[in-house]
Design brief:
By secondary structure, the chain is of the alpha/beta class. It has 7 helices and 6 strands, in the order ββαααβαβαβαβα.
């Protein structure tokens, strides 16, 4: 097991915590992380792009001109894709881009992402982050004491004051341990874990 320092809200070391090797010391495989991040981003796509076909655009159903004798090509509808203002052939339709990869791969990728933060010395464990009131200034002071400006903060439960105080701070995101994912871990420079959330993550990833 690896020993990790635990800090308080003032950035002072108060204790140490053991991090299990099954989560924080696994081989990091870039292609697995890439596969999971690609899946997450694909699932976030709206997929709402749409065009109108010839049956949906406005236009008369009357034949534009007679079949023969004009010297022009035959035409049966003003809504034909060949005409200006006509329908679109094989245009995009509303669809879902989401797909899934095996659960074991997703779980292993999460372990790899946590391991990478520990190896990069970008993992910070805090004993608690209980703000008395909703105060952005106080939150910025806490983040500064932890010597980070770009961080993903993982809480063990709902901390309304913390979540509201961090809303207007750029490059900082607060999530609960249930919503921790590979993309967010890799996106932010530092990962800040509340000490109780470490045990909850261990229970989630070792079950």
């Amino acid at each position: 097991m690896a020993l990790q320092d635990v800090y308080n809200m003032d950035g002072v070391k108060v204790s140490e915590i053991d991090l299990v090797d099954e989560i924080f010391n696994v081989p990091v495989k870039q292609h697995v992380l890439h596969e999971v991040v690609t899946m997450q981003l694909a699932s976030r796509r709206a997929g709402t792009a749409a065009t109108k076909g010839r049956s949906e655009v406005r236009g008369s159903g009357q034949k534009p001109y007679r079949q023969k004798g004009t010297g022009r090509a035959r035409a049966g509808s003003r809504r034909s894709p060949l005409w200006r203002g006509g329908g679109v052939v094989f245009g995009p339709r509303p669809r879902s881009y989401a797909y899934k990869i095996p659960k074991k791969v997703r779980r292993q990728a999460l372990k790899m992402a946590l391991t990478s933060k520990l190896q990069e010395k970008a993992l910070i464990v805090v004993d608690k982050l209980d703000l008395e009131t909703v105060k952005t200034k106080r939150f910025v002071e806490v983040v500064g004491a932890l010597r980070t400006r770009e961080a993903l903060i993982v809480t063990d439960r709902e901390l309304e004051n913390l979540e509201l105080s961090s809303r207007n701070v750029p490059h900082v995101k607060v999530v609960r341990w249930e919503g921790l994912n590979v993309y967010d871990i890799l996106k932010f420079k530092h990962l800040v874990l509340l000490e109780p959330s470490v045990k909850q993550l261990e229970g989630r990833l070792l079950s």
